[in-house]
Amino acid sequence: MAWKVGAAVAAILGFVGVGVGGDGSDPRRAGWRDSYRPPAEIPFPAANTYSAAKAELGRRLFFDPILSGDRTRACATCHIPDLAWADGRARAATRQQGDMDLRTPTVINVAWQDGPLGWDGKFPTLESVSAMPITAPGNMNLPMAEALARLSADPEYVAAFASAYADPAITRERLEAALATFERLIVAEPAPFDRWIAGQEDAIGDSAKRGFDLFNGRAGCAGCHSGWSFTDNSFHDIGVASGSDIGRGRFKPTSVALQYAFKTPTLREVGQHGPYMHDGSVPNLEAVINLYDRGGIDRPSRSRLIKPLHLTATERADLLAFLATLSAHADRDVVTASFATRPPAP
């Protein structure tokens, strides 16, 4: 089952000969713009179809510290709506206020995250994600059996599960499914970039438009950050990680290309979820552009898409201007997050 959110995504057009338009634009711009049109619907898997009752149950669970051992943490402790559904830290905080190994990823547009999830792809599906933070001693620290017992002892949760599943039994699978259903409704709100894609020419400035051409053209950013959600859902070594920080390589040890490869994150609301990279090692977007400009660490596993760019100061400014158009800057209520519980009309 799915819910409509806009026009269908067009196929990404192939490259053609490059010239310069009469206004200085790349002649491929129109084709590139078509590839960023919003998808027609929010996808829900056949094994976990959408229902309003299930989504509301998932919303309540997401914000409820009942799922942590000492009742002080919830999913929303790290995935904060006001911080673009991340936490603004270089690395996620442990319950003892230390640092975890990886940065908290945003859950914006997670419904379109195909294949393995997590920076290193440790989760095969969205439904499989929640058990790890709930049970991890350094995170929410609540054994799954105790989590289910707590929920089963709460009459309101018993009623909510019965409404969502037509059966009062509270199981791990149903807990995971409800959380995933709510999370799939966390969709990027329209940003200036989307208004431009829809045809409003003055929605973004000339510098941002030049940045869009550069992003899709010579800089090659769209090789990984493609389509409406700005991710190819794949894993790449971009020349950042080193040593034992091996990313996808921990699961694919024979693949040189995946040795230091981490998941391509969405760029939606990118200005709101720094610092950047899997470990928060790059402090701001200026530094991100500098990293790509110099090409990162040159090694056999580095993606063939990554190479020194030799950008001018104007080109760097244009890329920054373009990235700024991907943020809606919408006010969000960390307590209710009500916008994310309302699926669009079918």
Automatic annotation (TrEMBL):
Cytochrome c domain segment(s): 53-190, 206-327
Alphabetized UniProt keyword annotations: Electron transport, Heme, Iron, Metal-binding, Oxidoreductase, Periplasm, Peroxidase, Signal, Transport
Binding site for heme c 2: C221, C224, H225
Cofactor(s) this protein cannot do without: heme
Pathway in which this enzyme or protein is active: One-carbon metabolism; methylamine degradation
Cofactor comment: Binds 2 heme groups.
PTMs per UniProt: Binds 2 heme groups per subunit.
Locations listed in the record: Periplasm
SUPFAM superfamilies tied to this protein: Cytochrome c
A single cellular component GO annotation: periplasmic space
GO MF term list: cytochrome-c peroxidase activity; electron transfer activity; heme binding; metal ion binding
Positions that bind heme c 1: C75, C78, H79
InterPro entries assigned: Cyt_c-like_dom, Cyt_c-like_dom_sf, Cytochrome_c_Peroxidase/MauG, Di-haem_cyt_c_peroxidsae, MauG/Cytc_peroxidase
Its job: Involved in methylamine metabolism. Essential for the maturation of the beta subunit of MADH, presumably via a step in the biosynthesis of tryptophan tryptophylquinone (TTQ), the cofactor of MADH.
Descriptive protein name: Methylamine utilization protein MauG
Organism annotation: Methylobacterium phyllostachyos
Source species taxonomy: Bacteria, Pseudomonadati, Pseudomonadota, Alphaproteobacteria, Hyphomicrobiales
